[in-house]
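Input.
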Amino acid sequence: TIKFTSTKPHRIKVTGRTKHFINAFGEELIIENADQAIAKASKETEAIISNYTAAPIYISANSQGSHQWLIEFEKEPNNLDIFINILDQTLRENNADYDAKRANDMALLKPSINLLKSGSFYLWLKKNNRLGAQNKIPRLSNDRAFVEEMLRLQVEV
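Output.
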């Protein structure tokens, strides 16, 4: 996906991949929003991230919807709760649709984070014959298949 940054002269910026988004609740979260929020939360909590992915937790009879983030840290944040708050607030500031769904926890609760063991994403790439520069970790997914696979891998790491 692209964004026009200027029309005279025409200038564009690549903002993400069409497959990498979450729109389970009308929040229209794109990779650009996620990368900005991850960067700000990391900077403000002195964290260093190796890799991350996120997917929706769907509304059920027992719970409201939310986003589940799986993050492999090189250096964990000095306070995970503050990291989550900054992540959430930055997503709200940069995405009006996400903000509307988060208002009063109407459709979305605050995101949750699962800390992954070091090497988790590498193991997934290796198991799926995707090692190499052209293969990417799915950052955002509108379904839970990749997140569930990553959670199952935690036993093997």
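The CA atoms of residues 3 and 13 lie 5 Å apart.
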